[in-house]
Every structure is written in C-alpha cells, then in structure tokens.
Specification:
With about 300 residues, the chain is of the alpha/beta class. The chain folds into 2 domains: about 40-135 and about 245-305, D-Maltodextrin-Binding Protein, domain 2 (3-Layer(aba) Sandwich); about 140-235, Osmoprotection protein (prox), domain 2 (D-Maltodextrin-Binding Protein, domain 2, 3-Layer(aba) Sandwich), CATH 3.40.190. About 45% of the residues lie in helices and about 15% in strands. It has 14 helices and 12 strands. The chain has a 5-stranded mixed beta sheet. A 3-stranded antiparallel beta sheet has the order 5-12-6, with helices on both faces. Helix 8 links the parallel strand 8 (about 165-170) and strand 9 (about 200). Helix 2 (about 45-65) crosses helix 14 and helix 4 crosses helix 5. The chain is globular and about 60 Å long. The chain starts with a helix and ends in a 5-residue tail after the last helix.
C-alpha cells in the first residue's frame, strides 16, 4: 500500500513538472508546436497614425512576426495608457508629444536632445523608442499659392511682416498655447508681427475649409496634412525655429522587442522613408476624393519601397 502511494505521488509530481515546463515556453497548439505571442499594435484616431500603425503591422507580418491590430484607439493619453498597461505593445508616437505631454518636461527644440530625453524618460515604463522619421507633424502655416505670390510669403517671418493685411483661421487652443499665437506675438513683438487684420477659430477637422473657400488668407496647418498636397497649398518655412519638433517613431514595450529583435531593422528602415511630403500624399489618398482604404494605401507604399512583397 505504501509503495502504491509513493508511485502515485511521483506520477503527480512528474505531471506537474511537465505542465510547468510546457507552459514556460509559450502555449502549445494541437500539433505540439509552440504558439508565439503576437505584437499588439495600436494607433491614435487620426489618418496619419492609422496609416503608420498599419504599416508597422504589415512590415512585421512580412517577417513572420504574429501581429494583432488595435488601431484607432483615441487620443494621446488613451493610446499611451494602453501601452503602459500592456493592452498594446507598440504604436506610433511623436517626439514632441513624448517630452511635453507624457513626460511633462520643458520645451526642447533640438531633435537629438528630445530623443535622448524621451528614451531615458520612457525607461520607467520599459518602453523603447526606435528611430524617428524625418516627418515633422508640428504646427505651421499654409496659404494658397496665389496669396503667397501676392505678399511674397515664403517664411513665418514674411507672414509676421504682412499679418496686418491678412485674415487668419486656426483650430482650438492655438490662440492660447505658448507654442501658438501668444508665443509668436511675443517673439515678433518688436516687429509688431502676428497681429492680424482678422482672425477666427474653426474646428480642427475643418481647418482648411476657410482657406479653400476664400474666407481666410492663412490657416494653421500640421506639416504632414494631406490637404497641403491635395489642395496644392504653400507651407511656410519655420525660419525662426519656433515650433517644437514632432518627429514620429515606433515606441515598443522592451519585453516584445527582446522577444522579436528582428523587428527593429525593418521598422527603422520604414521610418527613414516617412517625410512630410510622403505622408501628405499618403494621407490624401485616404482623406481625399479617392477615399482609399488605409490597408491598401499602406500596402502599396510598402511594396513600392521593397518592405513587403
């Protein structure tokens, strides 16, 4: 009887050991092959971020990395909370947003220093920044080519000189932010600049309507907006380096990057391709009259650049 109990105990212990051993390497499928954990990819709820998140997903799938999509989550804090709480593993984030909105550090305009502070600051959440894109989704000013020619507008300094002759339209908060109209008025105070003949606020999603309808001469833009290319507008150069840098980059949980280190190189290659002009055209394919699907626009671009077959 004692031998039977000992033998039974050994069987139970062996079964427990085998169960733990199998579980430590990931779950098993019916055929016995280990099923790898997916990289869960999120994005914010705007066209540009959706496209970037979809491109990340397709690049990783080309590598054979399992992917789960949770795109179009919401604004910055909703999406960041999702990665912080491990509901997602990566998403496209902007360097300026990281340092200002998430880390709440002082404004820094040197792109390299911004990246250094983001990389260091995000270590507290075990989140890593991959290489940033040249794309700079920061504020700017757009006007029609006709208005630009009439007033010789090429730079923000040119706009400051002629502001009293022009009407400005702008989205919410631009008239109260330090990196908006108050800051520009302070910077150009001696020249009397950025005091417009007329100015009015419009909804963010409608910020180009007054310009195209002739109700304003200049509108506040974001550098990668598809409407800039779609409407053939003139984007004024920030010759005084006033606006913060908002380069986009993949941010990813350290645990998943260590699980799939092969993901780093192709994602960095993708980032290197994303310029303001490229993103304007891609955004316009989705938002413009053609209304293409995000998945199709992403796939076509990645194919053209040899990142997927």
């Amino acid at each position: 009887m004692k031998k039977t109990k000992i033998a039974f105990s050994l069987v139970v212990a062996l079964a427990a050991f085998l169960t733990a051993a199998c579980g430590s390497g990931g779950s098993e499928s019916a055929g016995g092959a280990t099923k790898k954990e997916p990289i869960v990819i999120g994005s914010k709820n705007n066209t540009e971020n959706l496209l970037q998140g979809e491109m990340y997903a397709q690049v990783l799938e080309e590598l054979g990395v399992p992917v789960e999509r949770k795109l179009n989550l919401g604004g910055t804090m909703v999406t960041f909370e999702a990665i912080k709480s491990k509901q997602i593993d990566m998403y496209p984030e902007y360097t300026g947003t990281g340092i200002l909105a998430i880390l709440k550090l002082p404004l820094e305009k040197d792109p390299q220093k911004v990246m250094e502070k983001n990389r260091e600051g995000f270590k507290q959440w075990d989140i890593e920044w991959l290489d940033p894109a040249p794309l700079n989704s920061t504020y700017g000013f757009a006007t029609t080519k006709e208005t630009a020619a009439k007033y010789n507008l090429k730079t923000i300094s040119d706009l400051a000189k002629h502001s009293k002759e022009l009407t400005l339209s702008y989205p919410q908060e631009f008239d109260v932010r330090d990196d908006g109209l108050p800051g520009l008025q302070k910077q150009f105070k001696d020249q009397g600049g950025f005091q417009f003949k007329k100015q009015f606020q419009v909804d963010y999603s409608l910020r180009y309507d007054p310009l195209t309808q002739g109700l304003s001469d200049v509108t506040v833009s974001v550098g990668s907006d598809g409407q800039i290319a779609g409407y053939e507008l003139q984007l004024l150069e920030d010759d005084v380096n006033f606006f913060p840098v908002y380069n986009v980059a993949p941010i990813i949980r350290k645990e998943k990057l260590e699980m799939y280190p092969e993901a780093k190189e192709p994602l960095n290659k993708l980032s290197a391709l994303l310029t303001d002009q490229v993103m304007q055209k891609l955004d316009w394919q989705v938002d413009g009259p053609d209304k293409k699907e995000v998945e199709d626009v992403a796939k076509e671009f990645l194919k053209e650049n040899g990142l997927v077959k």
